[in-house]
Automatic annotation (TrEMBL):
This is Arc-like DNA binding domain-containing protein. The lineage of its organism: Bacteria, Pseudomonadati, Pseudomonadota, Gammaproteobacteria, Pseudomonadales. One of its GO terms (biological process) is regulation of DNA-templated transcription. InterPro entries: Arc_DNA-bd_dom, Arc_rbn_hlx_hlx, Ribbon_hlx_hlx. Residues 4-45 form the Arc-like DNA binding domain. It holds the Pfam family Arc. GO terms for molecular function: DNA binding.
Amino acid sequence: MKKRDINPFGLRLAPDLRERVEDQAGKHRHSLNTEIEMLIEDGLRWRESQEKQAVA
């Protein structure tokens, strides 16, 4: 994905949640942005798999 294809998106996080995500980012050696993207992707994949199981 080209850098110009990505639009900035403001996100408000509770301080404790931000701290947890920052800790994870540090452990994985990612930026905060990258860690949030990965968590969202993982969460969406999990939710989609749960929805497929519920239908089956």
